[in-house]
Amino acid sequence: MNEKIHHGRNIKRFREMMGIKQESLAFELGPDWSQKKISLLEQKEEVEEELLRQVAEILKVPAEAIKNFNEESAINFFNSSFNGQFSGVNYHTTFNVNPIEKWVEALEENKKLYERLLESEKEKMELMKKMMEK
């Protein structure tokens, strides 16, 4: 399992999990970026460190998550961790905090905050347009 991790594909996964469009990511990266350039970025197997750090910051995830996320490893982890756990009846219920569940909750919260921020920026732009027209 010495497969190379595809940074661009991972950027796309995290971007989609956050509900962020390519256009929005391009806007956040600056005027040199476009939707097409983000599409090309997501096709790159390896992304340079500084750009990876910037994208991770915008997506509100650790850069290491983008660099190290491997779908096959995640599936193997879940298969080995939960193998056979759901068969039969468990009379001794234990409640454990699942760190991945907490992480997904944090991602969802970040997504909501980003959407509110985006909506606020849209409202500001509309207000500025109205003021400019007067």
Q: Can you give a write-up of this model?
A:
Residues 84-95 have low confidence and may be disordered. The radius of gyration is 20 Å and the shape is flat. It is 67% helix and 0% strand. By secondary structure, it is mostly helical.
What does the main sheet amount to? none
**What's the helical proportion of residues?**
55-70%
How many angstroms separate the termini?
A: 64 Å
Helices and strands, in order, run as: HHHHHHH
Structural class of the helices, strands and pairings?
mainly alpha
DSSP E strands, number: 0
Strand content: under 5%
Report the C-alpha radius of gyration, rounded: 20 Å
Shape descriptor reads: flat
Topology:
Blueprint (H helix, E strand, L loop, with lengths): L6 H11 L4 H8 L5 H7 L7 H11 L3 H6 L2 H12 L16 H35 L1
Tags for this model:
mainly alpha, 134 residues, flat, 0% strand, 7 helices
Question: Brief description of this entry?
Answer:
The chain is mainly α and 134 residues long.
